[in-house]
């Protein structure tokens, strides 16, 4: 989930909970107000009843009509029961019905003197009053229809308001957060366009002291420093490779003249040959590094061209053959290839030559029969090149690290090398969005499979 959505979600949830709490407080407060108001009406009704009994001589059941008509605070569905001190019914507004009452309620009045129960329907208000030295139990019940209808209306209104508010809160919170974070989104987009090969790109910084402006300025400072480091590294690699290549060429030339100019013993010739091979490998490594420094991974596609892979293979073999004249190549085009295949890929020819030079050189160093087999197969989606040689294989444990820098397998004992050749091969193929894998289906079989997407 993006930061924008997280902030909008958390903000919406917070406001929703807060608004829900406010709605609940409003509902509970109104219900409390309704209850207090209705209880006040009960108390007024009780006061009227007490005054009426106090002013009546010999109050009994002959007074109900006058009692009801005189009342000025009659409530809806009102029922009144009046008992004497012995809990005998003296008066009831209920006519033509069997009158039932709760004796337990009358007993509670002896202790509490006033009881209000809003949980029953109708609600009940009961009181014990002493009038002219006599105790009277007065029980009044009534329905607060008006108050309940207002409370129900308020409940539905609050629910509707809450739902609409939630929708508006979620919408506006996302809109507002999106508006506030738009500069951050823009900064994110600009940062994503900065790569290791485009460190000279500066992010525009507005004349503001907000956090985003400070972040952009800090990022610009960081990429300037990184660019200095990368450029220094690149310059050093190019300079070192160039400076090393020149004396290596002179040494190789002098060794060749020395070998031809005088007669040497077989042992001396063997040593000179080994020195010449080492110089060739070191020269080949410096050439590979020098070629790599000329290209940027991000921009290399701009200089892609159509390259015939068979021509690259033969050119690379010709270069390797000069130093390993005994190496023979068996070149084949698979019978499963498309008849209309052009054997071409998009890439940089000089880099692709480095790939096959390293593979052929490895085949020459580790082969047991001085033979390398190259098979090309082209399909609709890919062009595959298999470079097969026979010799000591690489163990399963070492295969996972085969393309790491300075990795040398157990089969490379007594063979000089830097351990960088296959690493360079993999890097160049990554530049071309291609892949290389190592396979060993049989003993003494080493097969490197290169796949170029078409």
Automatic annotation (TrEMBL):
What are the record keywords, sorted?
Kinase, Membrane, Phosphoprotein, Transferase, Transmembrane, Transmembrane helix, Two-component regulatory system
- Membrane-spanning ranges: 7-30, 153-177
**Residues covered by the Histidine kinase domain:** 239-454
Please verify whether the record's keywords include Transferase: yes
Q: Which residues form the HAMP domain?
A: 178-231
State the reactions this protein catalyses.
ATP + protein L-histidine = ADP + protein N-phospho-L-histidine
Per its record, what are the GO molecular function terms? phosphorelay sensor kinase activity
Give GO cellular component annotations, separated by semicolons: plasma membrane
EC nos: 2.7.13.3
Cellular location of this protein?
Membrane
Q: Name one Pfam family in it.
A: HATPase_c
Protein name, per record: histidine kinase
The record lists the lineage as: Bacteria, Pseudomonadati, Bacteroidota, Flavobacteriia, Flavobacteriales
